[in-house]
Design a protein that fits this description.
- Its EC number is 2.7.7.65.
- It comes from Lacimicrobium alkaliphilum.
- This is diguanylate cyclase.
- The chain is an alpha/beta fold.
- It is elongated, with a radius of gyration of 25 Å.
- The mean pLDDT is 93.
- It binds 3'-deoxy-guanosine-5'-triphosphate (GH3) and magnesium ion (MG) (3 copies).
């Protein structure tokens, strides 16, 4: 076959570069005691779309980590009174920062010394002087990977929905937002009816298919801005921003009806499953927890009154 000519390659690389430039996002915290160097790093990373925060001394590193929530940390090895690897170890001791990628910045050329520093708990070593392209590429790729992994970790593997802690976090974020902007938001708790019977009659694998079907229906029917979580085994939580109670109730009612009409198959048998839901206006409660609790109470009432319905 014909070989690709050099101008084509150059053009291709250029396009790839500009696409990646547009696509890059993320947050990097850089800690280095050399202020001029920090400014240079900041300039090098400007226009990449990546947010940069710099610290010339690590005294406030923990509060900045918590507040800024970077995707990656670039850490100088030699900072006068502070030793980068010692700091890296302290950071790694915090469960919250166990998976934070840490990249050392140092003039250390000796591979054995580099490996020792890495063994303490960092991921990569950039040897000073660091070229602009190397800095940009490393930060971009590491940020991208870190985001990819954290998105993967946030998702429940069976359904692809947000895990329990993440959906709670989303409800919390939305509670803060709807209080600040006084826009309505709705929170929902959903539970499959008599699901034990489904498992007992048709097996756990079939039960899993039912759970996935509901997850897919929720993804299809709810808005892109709605957040859906698998709260427990066959229990789901949803938060719907910019949504009134009646609106939320209507959408849920449509979902309930649609779901109850689905035919599931197990061998030669066909069956249907229903769901119950409780719904609450997030704005009516002093906290996200209280609103979730109210939705859960409404769900419980629905189960008492007769399943296959929505309660306020
Ligand atoms: P109710 O209408 O009152 O909710 O009745 P129920 O039978 O659904 O009651 P309950 O919530 O107590 O039972 C939930 C069942 O869901 C029990 C559990 O074995 C099953 N379950 C939980 N997680 C999974 C899962 O991932 N896959 C399958 N197949 N079943 C699950
Ligand atoms: Mg230094
Ligand atoms: Mg149930
Ligand atoms: Mg349940």
């Amino acid at each position: 076959s014909e070989s690709t000519t050099a101008p084509e390659i150059a053009e291709y690389l250029q396009r790839l570069e500009s696409e990646r430039l547009q696509a890059s996002e993320g947050k990097v915290l850089i800690v280095d005691d050399d202020e001029d160097l920090l400014e240079h790093y900041r300039l090098t990373l400007s226009h990449t779309g990546i947010q940069v925060r710099t610290l010339s001394t690590p005294e406030e590193i923990f509060s900045v980590l918590s507040e800024f929530q970077p995707d990656i940390l670039l850490l100088d090895v030699n900072m006068g009174d502070y030793h980068g690897p010692t700091l890296a170890r302290l950071i790694r001791f915090q469960p919250e920062w166990l998976s934070l990628p840490i990249i050392y910045l140092s003039a250390e050329q000796d591979r054995t010394e580099q490996r020792k520093a890495l063994a303490i708990g960092a991921d990569e070593f950039l040897t000073k002087p660091i070229s602009d392209i190397e800095l940009r590429e490393t930060v971009r790729i590491r940020c991208f990977r870190a985001r990819q992994l954290s998105q993967l970790l946030a998702r429940d593997s069976l359904t692809g929905l947000l895990k329990h802690s993440l959906i709670k976090q989303e409800v919390g974020n939305e509670h803060a937002r709807c209080q600040r902007l006084s826009v309505p938001a709705v929170v929902v708790m959903l539970d499959l009816d008599h699901f034990k019977k489904v498992n007992d009659s048709y097996g756990h694998g079939t039960g899993d298919i039912v759970i996935k079907a509901l997850a897919n229906l929720l993804k299809q029917r709810l808005r892109k801005t709605d957040k859906i979580g698998r709260y427990g085994g066959e229990e789901f939580a949803v938060v719907m921003p910019e949504c009134q109670l009646t609106q939320g109730e209507q959408i849920l009612e449509e979902i309930r009806v649609h779901f109850s009409g689905l035919h599931f198959k197990a061998g030669s048998e066909e069956f249907n499953v229903t769901l119950s839901a409780g719904i609450a206006l997030l704005n009516d409660y002093p906290s996200a927890e209280a609103a979730l609790e109210a939705a859960d109470q409404a769900l419980y009432q629905r189960k008492q009154l007769g399943r296959n319905g929505i309660s306020l």
